[in-house]
User: Which sequence fits this backbone?
């Protein structure tokens, strides 16, 4: 079973920031928070991941709470092409663990 | 990031035939590859994990004799759906893991339709 909880769907206006929340209250100390997204009929695309500190890359920012029980993915200026299902996954860095996908959040960016 | 390719991207076949899907890591060596299945409006479900040169490990409920996995080299894994039936119609996605720095990359998926 997925160890994360996400809202099933969200809307965002084009050009505005999209803030996608994720709860992972049972996260272990060695587990990272990963975000992937899946555009319709494509494979999952890596977005970002982090352990404790906030992370930023060219696609998004990841804000992790101090207790690590929740996080928020921020797309600073959403475009129509960001419409996708966004998956928040917690996974240890050790070699043996797989990615377990939950239902994710369906983000619709509206013109 | 590294690239994982799948071939074919979509296939339509008749019931009872077998279909082979290839997954390749294009610019890295993947010691482990994963096969997922995704039904419409559902999330990805892991089917099996394969390590190069050894037998695949299947998830509970996935028939190993129906979904044959071969991982003969560090850059290629194949999934063969034997005696396909309409209920096998799905989106099949592979993923490849690079040992160092232990990152995992997903392929674009293969849409299988069994008539």
Assistant:
């Amino acid at each position: 079973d997925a160890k994360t909880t996400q809202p099933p769907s969200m809307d965002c206006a084009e050009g505005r920031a999209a803030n996608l929340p994720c709860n992972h209250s049972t996260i272990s100390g060695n587990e990272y928070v990963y975000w992937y997204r899946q555009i319709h009929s494509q494979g999952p695309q890596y977005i970002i991941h982090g352990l404790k500190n906030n992370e930023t890359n060219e696609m998004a920012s990841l804000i992790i709470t101090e207790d690590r029980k929740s996080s928020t993915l921020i797309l600073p200026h959403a475009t129509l092409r960001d419409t996708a299902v966004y998956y928040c996954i917690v996974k240890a860095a050790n070699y043996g663990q797989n990615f377990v996908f939950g239902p994710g959040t369906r983000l619709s960016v509206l013109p | 990031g590294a690239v994982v390719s799948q071939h074919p991207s979509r296939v339509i076949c008749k019931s009872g035939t077998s279909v082979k899907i290839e997954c390749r890591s294009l610019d890295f060596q993947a010691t482990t590859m994963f096969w997922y299945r995704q039904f419409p409006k559902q999330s990805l479900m892991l089917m099996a994990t394969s390590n190069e040169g050894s037998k695949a490990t299947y998830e509970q409920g996935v028939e190993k004799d129906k979904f044959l996995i071969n991982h003969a080299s560090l850059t290629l894994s194949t999934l063969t759906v034997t005696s396909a039936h309409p209920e096998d119609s799905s989106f099949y996605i592979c993923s490849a893991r690079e040992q160092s720095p232990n990152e995992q990359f997903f392929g674009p998926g293969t849409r299988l339709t069994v008539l």
Notes: The two ends of chain A are 35 Å apart (CA to CA). The beta strands of chain A are 9-13, 18-23, 31-38, 45-50, 55-56, 61-64, 70-75, 84-92, 105-110.
